[in-house]
TrEMBL record:
This is Biosynthetic arginine decarboxylase. Pathway: Amine and polyamine biosynthesis; agmatine biosynthesis; agmatine from L-arginine: step 1/1. PROSITE patterns: ODR_DC_2_2 (PS00879). Residues 364-445 form the Arginine decarboxylase helical bundle domain. One of its GO terms (biological process) is putrescine biosynthetic process from arginine. It catalyses: L-arginine + H(+) = agmatine + CO2. NCBIfam families: PRK05354.1, speA. Residues 593-646 form the Arginine decarboxylase C-terminal helical domain. Its cofactor is pyridoxal 5'-phosphate; Mg(2+). The modification N6-(pyridoxal phosphate)lysine is found at K91. SUPFAM superfamilies: PLP-binding barrel. The gene is speA.
Length: 655
């Protein structure tokens, strides 16, 4: 439990049960729990292949409830004279079932949606139904991002359907365009301005604010908006002030600074325009990915309640001091709502370890360099391990030079390398028991790590891990009652050396290896194949499936994933809980090979036809038998309809 810090990042949704499996409690502290490993077993029986993304709708509901409850508590505690009305930023995870689930669960909170583009606006309009929420209530749609005339026109017209679209001016041109279109339509728009705060964000997404941020208006530009609207006698259109200082804000002090600055801008705007009524604090509410509760970029040093308290208290105090009516508070929290609800499950295909067993014996007439390495190996102890490490490196390098000049045979070089790795292993064992690891030995753990090959594409399923070194908690979902003996890095299916995970969460910093279990070999079996009419007996060793989970992946990962090496979308299931247990609400099948090929303009029929012609030619040239050519064509055709990830022969025959 302590090894993977599950208490820190997993509570109240993920824990470890007595069977050594992960338990999921989608409804938080209350409600029914399920055994994740048993769920995986039952999904296998339903022929659902891995990798697989499991979405828990109830976790989404719980996150929404917690966010609203945090603001409600803060409003009550500080006697805030207005309300909170959050919006879900669709960009965070646009998948239909997710947006629909959020809209469905958030009706009672009068939650709205945020659109960052025209397609997202179209999702917002089709998903939110004003008639279903509350009488005389117009659900808020915050319209952010770049806008063309069509975006603005659709947003303004939607007012007539009962929505409250607020067009947030991020660039001055958008103001002029909006006013022109609203004049043409004869409909008054609701406007907001996005301010570029001088408060600096922090962490990976910290440059969303500041003077040279991509979006938003500087203070002189905001004044231009006010002056222009005033001159057109339309200042009452302006109702909202928005800012966004970046996602995953790790430090509460950054949030406090931003709110302080934004409150003052709001007050100044409200002084000249009594129609101001919303303060939209954007996204940024962080997720504790490593469980450390610190201001490290993968964590955050505050909780949801602290976040709500600080916003509510600061705005109340500032408005009271300035004698301005407190605004409706809006937040655009995406990550904090969506991250927890998705778990990525994948299997380990095989492993590769550095061979650290020394040669059985060293002869007196072995090359001097080998004898030196042997002596080094024999002499390693707690007092000299740092020095002997450098000796071993030097002797190994000398051995390679000797080999390159033709003075060592292949067998001798092999012996030298074997001895070198044996030295490293012995030294590593010593460092593991020291309080302090010298700088020059810091990388040894990583160098000696086992490689676990995983049935996954990091580029498709955890793109932030590859692109910006984002950390996600990763751990086995079973065998947690057994000591993990291996220290490993993970290598994915792509043939790209970046397709790996070699940074893992740690309470103090980042770990370069993950503690995992050795794969268990099941009974080896025999099967027969035919080659050139002869029967051949093959021995196969099967490993017991070993499943890992990557957690907190519900925000941003799926849509940013790419098709590197043509590994496509993975299978997704949606689970919802009832008093009787769980139910699979939806299964969204991942891409087949045929589908990913079509994304890059290959037509399956045309591919099959060219294969058919090629096998015909080979038949004529007697390079294939008729049976072999038929087998090849049949396999090719079947593969077109298969999952793009590795599927065992057993699964193939079942599906
Ligand atoms: N609002 C805007 C304008 C954004 O750009 C983003 C994403 O970065 C969000 C809201 C969502 O932020 P988060 O997921 O950190 O809550």
């Amino acid at each position: 439990e302590n090894l993977y810090y599950i208490k820190g990042w997993g509570e109240p949704y993920f824990s470890i049960n007595a069977a050594g499996h992960i338990t999921v409690s989608p409804q938080g502290d209350l409600g029914v729990s399920l055994d994740l490993y048993e769920l995986v077993q039952s999904l296998k029986k339903r022929n659902i292949s891995f990798p697989l993304l499991i979405r828990f709708s109830d976790i989404l509901a719980d996150r929404l409830a917690r966010l609203n409850a945090s603001f409600d508590r803060a409003i009550a505690r500080y006697n805030y004279p207005n309300k909170y009305q959050g919006v879900y930023p669709i960009k965070c995870n646009q998948h239909r079932h997710i947006v629909e689930t959020i809209v469905n669960y958030s009706k009672s909170y009068q939650f709205g949606l945020e659109a960052g583009s025209k397609p997202e606006l179209m999702i917002a309009l089709a998903t939110l139904d004003p008639s279903l929420i509350a009488p005389n209530y117009a659900p808020i749609i915050i319209c952010n991002g770049y806008k063309d005339p069509a975006y603005i026109k659709t947003a303004i017209l939607a007012t007539q359907l009962g929505y409250k679209p607020i067009i947030v001016i991020e660039q001055l041109e958008e103001l002029f365009l909006t006013l022109e279109i609203s004049k043409q339509l004869g409909i008054e728009p609701s406007l907001g301005v996005r301010a570029k705060l001088s408060t600096k964000g922090s962490g990976r997404w910290g440059n969303s604010t500041g003077d040279r941020a991509k979006f938003g208006l500087t203070i002189p530009e905001i004044l231009t908006v006010v002056e222009y609207l005033k001159s057109e006698e339309n200042l009452h259109y302006l109702q909202l002030l928005h800012f966004h200082i970046g996602s995953q804000i790790a430090s509460i002090s950054v949030i406090k600074d931003a709110i302080r600055e934004a409150s003052q801008i709001y007050i100044q705007l409200a002084k000249v325009n009594p129609n101001m009524q919303y303060l939209d604090v954007g996204g940024g509410l962080g997720v504790d990915y490593d469980g450390s509760k610190t201001n490290f970029y993968a964590s955050k040093n505050y909780n949801m309640q602290n976040y709500a308290n600080d916003i509510v208290a600061e705005v109340k105090e500032s408005c009271e001091a300035a004698n301005i009516e407190a605004p409706i508070l809006i937040s655009e929290s995406g990550r904090a709502i969506a991250a927890h609800h998705s778990v990525l499950i994948f299997d380990v295909l095989n492993t590769n370890d550095v061979c650290t067993t020394p040669p059985e014996f060293i002869a007196e007439n072995d090359n001097l360099i080998i004898r030196n390495l042997w002596q080094t190996y024999e002499s390693i102890d707690v007092k000299n391990y740092q020095e002997t490490y450098h000796d071993a490196i030097q002797f190994k390098e000398e051995a390679i030079s000797l080999f390159n000049f033709g003075y060592l045979s292949l067998a001798e070089r092999a012996k030298a390398e074997q001895l070198y790795w044996a030295c490293c292993q012995k030294i590593l064992e010593i460092t593991r028991h020291q309080d302090y690891v010298p700088d020059d030995l810091e990388d040894l753990e990583k160098t000696m790590a086992s490689i676990y090959y995983i049935n996954l594409s990091v580029f498709q399923s955890a793109p932030d891990s590859w692109a910006i070194d984002q950390l996600f908690p990763i751990m086995p979902i079973h065998r947690l009652d057994e000591e993990p003996t291996q220290r490993a890095i993970l290598a994915d299916l792509t043939c790209d050396s970046d397709g790996k995970i070699d940074q893992f969460i740690d309470l103090r910093d980042v770990k370069s290896v993950l503690e995992l279990h050795r794969l268990k070999t099941l009974e080896s079996g025999h099967h027969e194949t035919q080659s050139k009419g002869k029967k051949i007996k093959n021995e196969t060793k099967m490993a017991e499936p070993y499943y890992l989970g990557m957690f907190l992946v519900g925000a941003y990962q799926e849509i940013m994933g790419n098709l590197h090496n043509l590994f496509g979308d993975i299978n997704v299931i949606h689970i919802s809980m009832s008093t009787k247990g769980y139910e699979i609400e939806h299964l969204v099948k991942g891409d087949t090979i045929k589908e990913v090929l079509s994304y890059v303009q290959y037509d399956a029929e045309a591919l099959l036809e060219s294969m058919r012609q090629r096998t015909e030619k080979a038949l004529q040239d007697h390079r294939l038998t008729l049976e072999e050519s038929q087998q090849l064509l049949q396999d090719y055709e079947e593969n077109l309809n298969h999952y793009t990830y590795l599927v065992s022969d057993q699964e193939k025959s079942k599906s």
